[in-house]
Amino acid sequence: MGWLFMRDLGGDSTPRAYLDNQFTYTRDDHRLTVLASSMVGHTYYAAAERVETAGGRQVFAIVCLTKTSTGARDGCTFGYKNMTEHMGPCESECPASILDELTGIDSEHAKAWRDRCRANLVKRKLQNAKPTPKPGQTIVFDQPMRFSDGQERTRFEVVPNPKGRTPLFRDPATWAICRIPAFRKRAYRLINPAVIPARAMS
């Protein structure tokens, strides 16, 4: 299915609330109800219960990509592209609280999607369990990284970030300050150095 855009959320306060209402309705042959939902970044995940009028119940996952805009020429401020797990969406960061609501399913695409989501939950848990680098420590990454100056680096001094909580990393040889986005996704180890007064950042 393609993208749908609208000028407003029809009275709903958030994209999540709007989509919850879009996927909760009653038809002659079935009823659909959102049992649980969540926004992960700009992606909406939901567990939707479908109850057939003739009998039968299934809870499946809905995934929506979303976009918001305040300066669109056509006045549209919100858009979404909806899929079900049967389509095997690339987005697979569905929370466990939603996955736990889903009932059994025959679709191989849906099964593979659920497996990816579960694997990502395990991976995220392991990432969050890693020790947090603190200023004064040395961090050593298992795999080298190439930076814009053409150099590959694995070893850095951890230094405070005056503009946020995410630490900065300094090359001990050149004193170049390096930013490493999503560093927790990389394998690393921390070395606790002797207590030495840190030199001021240049």
Q: Can I get a quick summary?
A:
With 202 residues, the chain is an alpha+beta fold. It folds into 2 domains: 4-129, no CATH class; 138-191, no CATH class. The protein has helices at residues 15-22, 96-99, 108-129, and strands spanning 4-6, 25-26, 30-40, 43-52, 57-68, 78-84, 138-146, 152-159, 168-170, 177-178, 188-191.
Number of helices: 3
Q: Given the C-alpha coordinates, what overall shape results? A: elongated
Uncertain runs: 194-202
Quaternary state reads: single chain
Q: Output the helix-strand order.
A: EHEEEEEHHEEEEE
Rg from Cα: 23 Å
The main β sheet shows up as: 6 strands, antiparallel
Number of domains: 2
Query: What is the first-to-last residue Cα distance?
Result: 52 Å
Query: How many beta-strand segments?
Result: 11
Global mean pLDDT: 90
Percent strand: 35-45%
How much helix, percentage-wise, in residues?
A: 10-25%
Strand ordering within the main sheet: 1-6-5-4-3-2
Q: What structural category arises from helix and sheet content?
A: alpha+beta
